[in-house]
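in:
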């Protein structure tokens, strides 16, 4: 498993709400890609930073979808008034989420 992580920053208010809305839009779109496993969105209002993590079955699955996701990432960031600071792919040696532990909204 690998994780693609994009970092965003910008002087926007209600970053968590923006991330929630963007996450809802992305979830319906990302499930169409083969190898997609999940989405995490992290926000820090104090540092005006957000991170979006997508989980993929393999590096190949992440690489195949990267161009389309990059275009979407740039579009959403621009609409929200954020800048894409960095994008990196990470290996995920451990990923555990307890049943029923996932919070929505």
């Amino acid at each position: 498993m690998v994780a693609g992580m994009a970092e965003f920053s910008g002087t926007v208010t209600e970053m968590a709400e923006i991330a929630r809305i963007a996450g809802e839009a992305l979830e319906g779109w990302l499930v169409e890609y083969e190898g997609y496993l999940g989405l995490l969105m992290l926000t820090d209002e104090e540092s005006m930073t957000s991170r979006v993590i997508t989980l993929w079955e393999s590096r190949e699955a992440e690489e195949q979808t990267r161009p389309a996701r990059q275009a979407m990432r740039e579009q959403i960031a621009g609409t929200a008034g954020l800048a894409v600071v960095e994008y990196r792919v990470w290996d995920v040696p451990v990923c555990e989420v307890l049943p029923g532990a996932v919070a929505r909204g």
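note: The beta strands are 2-9, 36-44, 49-56, 83-91.
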